[in-house]
Write a structure and sequence with these properties.
The complex is a heterotetramer, with two copies of chain A and two copies of chain B.
Chain A (H helix, E strand, L loop, with lengths): L1 E2 L1 H17 L1 H11 L4 H17 L6 H15 L4 H15 L6 E2 H19 L9 H10 L6 H14 L23 H18 L3
Antiparallel strand pairs in A: 1-2
Helix pairs in contact in A: 1-2, 1-3, 1-4, 1-9, 2-3, 2-9, 3-4, 4-5, 5-6, 6-7, 7-8, 7-9, 8-9
Chain B lengths: L10 H12 L4 E3 L5 E4 L9 E8 L16 E7 L5 H11 L5 E6 L2 H16 L4 E6 L19 H14 L4 H14 E9 L17 E4 L10 E4 L3 H15 L7 E8 L5 H17 L3 E8 L8 E10 L1 H8 L10
Parallel strand pairs in B: 3-4, 3-5, 5-6, 10-11
Antiparallel strand pairs in B: 1-2, 2-4, 7-8, 7-12, 8-9, 10-12
Helix pairs in contact in B: 2-3, 4-5, 6-7
Classes of the chains: A mainly alpha, B alpha/beta.
The structure holds adenosine-5'-diphosphate (2 copies) and magnesium ion (4 copies).
Chain lengths: 204, 331, 331, 204
């Protein structure tokens, strides 16, 4: 796997498409155990991301990721804004000077992104948040990565959040009653990573 | 969904324009932001107060801007915490050299976005302190989870911290009074009907024609129990008991009381509730120092209410009584 | 019907008890009546103001009691004019020797009950004058019928007459300023949803999920037109046009604007409406002197709003700006 | 026809019963062209009337009518309170010193009651108000009165208000759209007079 600036743009376009198409679904998920804005937040933010990316020229993947981070940070809001923003920013910083991005560097980038998210969110694995999708995805890289596995892993991880009890984020107010619902942030993270898989596969 | 709106995507922007049209002499909107500040900001050498959060809780928070309360309110999208860049703009606009104090409601998003803004402001050489309000006893307070939410008690924290700052206190002193307020304020709410975020187009939950929910959050977060609508007196008792399980009052202690409407509750019902709340406090030997009845921290057109108690000492009483020119909290 | 009430038959009594509990220092209830007066009544040698009407319009009218506004509010049953004996008690309690001025909304019941009370008071040697507010342009003004109704514009009349009385004017002078206010105030309202009187148990009318009604009265009286819910801008235009058909403004004339919520309308929507109202007035060369946005004259939990314009001259401006300590209209 | 104090008490009891039983119906009528409180107002007021009458001793019909008037005046409220209050007060005043009340005096009493109502309400025949029931009823007395005719006349007069256009009271706001609805005050006046017919008939 290799990613250059154009791949990042493609990745974000595909992510945006999924978010726009599933805005209502994400909102429904968030209405069940949160406040019903996750779809609206992500759709608003990523619309701005692709807008931004389409209107600039990027030399490196890192540069495109940095603008993605800044746009997400200033346009998404809520909990997911600073978390995704932090993740992309850490990824961008970690990948600085590496172009195209190779699989091993990408894994290191994801590790640093995850560390940033955990610190920012004061959260960890098993608390029914998007972290529960990012960890298994991160572990896949530089190991036995393939686009199919990426989609598969992200999807399973997303589904696993259903049976978890939330201890962080808004769903934590529900305690045990959060069990049985998908975590909205994990679903948007699934869209992100399955879009990455599509990007790597090429085509469309 | 029936609403007096134009484009559901631009409700916050439209609202802020209408707000500035209504208060052209006292409020201003920072260009290209959703930040409202007092028009005379920054006040040199005064600690400045910035609060904010998602929109949909009006008059929170822009209605609390004024002498003796807030210097700026950062207005996020509907029910969505504002972003760090917006909070940063607010901090920069109101800093008068004595530092900026942030009043944050305890939601993951608010805490993260305000924290990031504070870090950015500090990097620019502005002193920033903060308090996180967590008055909602409907949520269990646990160090392993997100902890209690910030709801209507936040208004009392604005008032206390704002009065302290107006009196010329240092950033550290403002923080200490604000923390005292947070430590002594508790709220508990309930809902009769849900509300609808314009861009979502449908309510966040539904309640049967004779059902109420105890402990609903101000963003429609599910509460702790659903049951048939009870009489006002029973509701008062349930809310007060839940609060008093969480904070100890001794005989003769004084409290400020807020009976807060969630947006669609007639003032009549709030006063009916207040009658019983007042009586229950009396029975428990708690003396009501001041009572505030009205829409202070709403959830769009949700029907329901919350009750807030702020346990007072001498300092808090004098800060509560200090002048405020904020349109939604004139003292 | 979902409400925070105890016995539907005793809502007014319960509300008034809760009101007095909340404002023990400034308000009192006359024993065995539904009359609320300022606690320091009567004010010697000041003309005293009495207003009132059916309950269910809170904060009207007890919220307007205070220095510079009302001395007493007579609270009838739900949406029902109070009886002459109650109005008489109010008049007697607040007369400080300079006479009592009645602000009456133009409904057959209010006019008759207040008139009878005035006759009884005059028989007891108290000087009484009155004004009848008829600002609602949804109703045709005709000398053959009951004429226009009194709605939110009444609050401006309270303010003008109250400021005049507080300034030491005579009963005749208060009447003359109040009449000027009435002659220059116009309102127009609309509803998105009906409301339910607790003892009736069902709404006074129904509207389809995407229907609104233009011109609905504040007691749920049917309006003049039903149609699909329009955008805020279109609603603003319709209400403003209807008002401006009824009262002439010249280029450069100044107006006080009130954007009034009917009870269940989020403040956000009122500000969105205000944005357009402000712009429309500007386009027509009318200068907005002051804007008031909020729940001033409600209909329980009705969703909807009204827009009021008060055409100002020098005297009205200074009376509008004069101090008021009334909780619902602090100036 | 003759009426003494006890007859007035019986009359008001029968009226009260009808008002309590039809409280909801009157409210529905008032919701259509008014503000929906006529049933509530009248039921509240007449409950107090019978309460008052049961707890005092009355020598004359006039005395009982006077207390009826004062109670209606202070307990009904709205438009109907002062109007019915004025009517009973004028009737009481007109019948002072006449006991038992004969048919001719009663007619004079009703005439004075009507004059009072018209003056208080600034209203007249044909404006779709309770006046439209009181006028034909008044004309019946000292002419060819019978209890059956009284009920009949009041009922027809009440029904006639349906096709009228309101020009006084709250229904006048509706203009032409008030046509096709019964006037609530005329319906309560029908209850009043059919209860009088029952009282005169005796029995029950
Ligand atoms: N402390 C946290 N750590 C990691 N992820 C979190 C945390 N809190 C919330 N999230 C993620 O954010 C998502 C909610 O995002 P969103 O609805 O946009 O924000 P908000 O909860 O402020 O409305 C959750 O589904 C969860 O995946
Ligand atoms: N000006 C008037 N003259 C005579 N009767 C009137 C007048 N106005 C109203 N009414 C009567 O009063 C009735 C309404 O009474 P009610 O509903 O109790 O009072 P409100 O209209 O104040 O709510 C009407 O149906 C009508 O018969
Ligand atoms: Mg959310
Ligand atoms: Mg949110
Ligand atoms: Mg009425
Ligand atoms: Mg009525």
């Amino acid at each position: 796997m290799e990613l250059n600036a154009q791949d990042i743009i493609t990745w974000m376009h595909k992510t945006n498409e999924r978010l726009q198409n599933n805005k209502d679904y994400l909102t429904t998920l968030d209405q069940a155990i949160g406040d019903g804005d996750h779809g609206i937040n992500m759709a608003r933010g990523f619309k701005e991301v692709v807008n931004k990316l389409d209107n600039e020229n990027y030399e490196t993947a890192s540069d495109a990721l940095r603008d993605t981070a800044m746009t997400v940070m200033s346009k998404v809001g809520g909990a997911s804004g600073p978390l995704y923003g932090t993740a992309f920013l850490k990824l961008a910083t970690s990948l600085k000077g590496i172009d195209p991005v190779d699989e091993s560097s990408f894994k290191t980038g994801l590790e640093e992104a995850l560390a940033g998210v955990k610190q920012r969110g004061k959260s960890d694995q098993g608390e029914k948040t998007l972290i529960d999708v990012w960890i298994p995805v991160m572990e896949l890289f530089d190991n036995n990565f393939s686009p199919e596995k990426l989609t598969d892993t992200a999807e399973k991880a997303m589904e696993n959040t259903k049976d978890m009890k939330a201890t962080k984020g808004r769903a934590s107010y529900l305690g045990d009653r959060s069990i049985g619902h998908l975590d909205p942030g994990s679903v948007s993270s699934f869209y992100l990573f399955t879009s990455l898989a599509d990007t790597v596969k090429g085509g469309e | 969904m029936k609403k007096i709106v134009n484009d559901p995507e631009s409700v916050v922007e439209d609202m802020l324009d209408g707000l500035i049209s209504a208060h052209p002499d006292s409020l201003q909107k920072l260009p290209d932001t959703t930040v409202i500040t007092r028009k005379d900001a920054p006040i040199t050498n005064k600690v400045s107060l910035v609060s904010g959060g998602g929109s949909g809780h009006e008059p929170a928070h822009a209605g609390y801007i004024g002498n003796g309360m807030l210097d700026a309110a950062v207005c996020g999208e509907m029910f969505t915490s504002p972003t760090p860049d917006q909070v940063l703009e607010a901090i920069k606009a109101v800093d008068g050299g004595a530092g900026v104090f942030l009043v944050i409601k305890n939601y993951t998003g608010d805490v993260m976005n305000f924290d990031m803004a504070a870090e950015l402001a500090e990097a620019e050489g502005i002193q920033v302190e903060k308090v996180v309000v967590n008055d909602d006893v409907a949520v269990e307070d646990s160090s392993f989870t997100t902890g209690r939410r910030g709801i209507a008690g936040t208004i009392f924290v604005h008032k206390i911290a704002g009065a302290k700052a107006a009196a010329g206190a240092s950033l550290e002193e403002v923080r200490s009074s604000a923390e005292k307020a947070v430590a002594n304020v508790r709220s508990m709410g309930m809902a009769l009907t849900p509300c609808t975020v314009p861009a979502a187009g449908r309510p966040s939950f539904t309640l049967d024609e004779n059902e109420m929910e105890i402990g609903t959050g101000i963003h429609g977060e599910p509460g702790i129990e659903r049951k048939p609508v009870a009489a006002a007196d029973a509701i008062a008792e349930e809310l007060i008991n839940k609060i008093l399980e969480d904070i100890e009052f001794n005989q003769g202690d004084e409290a400020a009381v807020m009976i807060n409407g969630m947006g669609a509750t007639p003032e009549m019902e709030l006063y009916i509730l207040n009658k019983k709340v007042n009586q229950l406090l009396k029975e428990r030997g708690i003396s009501t120092y001041k009572t505030f009845v009205g829409n202070y921290m709403t959830s769009l057109e949700m029907a329901g209410c919350s009750v807030t108690l702020l346990k007072l000492d001498k300092e808090l009483k004098s800060l509560l009584d200090a002048e405020s020119s904020a349109p939604a909290f004139r003292v």
